[in-house]
């Protein structure tokens, strides 16, 4: 096993338009979903806070993920929706014109958004022992990746 750790050299790669879309969801109790939908969460506006958490953390991805290149992010869009009685879904779209892709930034955006949701409703998610038997972050994945050389300049 090699301990040769280094960043991938992208010096010779041309800049190109790149886009990544990531998705994930959180399973919550009906109580939490209802409080979110009615704006009754004690900590405040869950959706807005989760969107901000996603955007802020996507921009900080190279600080969180070792060996991840810092790249100029040109756009971040976070869409958060109540999917059903027990799930909230998060979709993050991240764009750049760079030498490497934005998959890690999109995944970080989704993850941070979901964690912010959990943090804001954890009071309502705990059982009598203070555990989280129902709450679960699920299905985080890249759903689309685009690379177009023609839009590079």
What does this molecule look like?
The chain is an alpha+beta fold and 153 residues long. It has a single domain, classed as Molybdopterin cofactor biosynthesis C (MoaC) domain (Alpha-Beta Plaits, 2-Layer Sandwich), CATH 3.30.70.640. The protein contains four helices and four strands, in the order βαααββαβ. Helix 2 (46-59) runs antiparallel to helix 4. The relative contact order is 0.30. The model has no long low-confidence stretch (mean pLDDT 94).
Count of discrete alpha- or pi-helical segments spanning 4 or more residues: 4
Tell me about the biggest sheet?
4 strands, antiparallel
**CATH architecture descriptor name:** 2-Layer Sandwich
What is the CATH class designation?
Alpha Beta
CATH topology: Alpha-Beta Plaits
The CATH superfamily title:
Molybdopterin cofactor biosynthesis C (MoaC) domain
> How would the global form be characterised?
elongated
**SSE string, helices as H and strands as E:** EHHHEEHE
Mean pLDDT value: 94
- Kindly state the number of beta strands: 4
Range of helix content: 25-40%
Strand content: 25-35%
The termini sit apart by 41 Å
Radius of gyration: 18 Å
- Are there runs of 5+ residues with pLDDT below 50, and where? none
Sheet/helix structural class: alpha+beta
Give the tally of structural domains.
1
Biggest β-sheet: strands ordered side by side in the sheet: 2-3-1-4
């Amino acid at each position: 096993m090699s301990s040769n750790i280094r960043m991938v050299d992208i010096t010779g790669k041309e800049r190109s338009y790149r886009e990544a879309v990531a998705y994930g969801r959180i399973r919550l109790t009906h109580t939490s979903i209802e409080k979110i939908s009615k704006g009754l969460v004690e900590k405040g506006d869950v959706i807005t806070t989760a969107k901000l958490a996603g955007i802020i953390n996507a921009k900080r991805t190279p600080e969180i993920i070792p060996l991840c290149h810092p790249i100029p992010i040109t756009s971040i869009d976070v869409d958060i929706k109540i999917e059903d009685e027990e799930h909230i879904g998060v979709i993050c779209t991240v764009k750049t014109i760079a030498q490497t892709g934005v998959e890690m930034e999109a995944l970080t955006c989704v993850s941070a958004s979901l964690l912010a949701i959990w943090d804001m409703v954890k009071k309502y998610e705990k059982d009598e022992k203070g555990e989280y038997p129902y709450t679960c972050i699920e299905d985080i994945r890249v759903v689309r990746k685009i690379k177009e050389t023609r839009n590079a300049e």
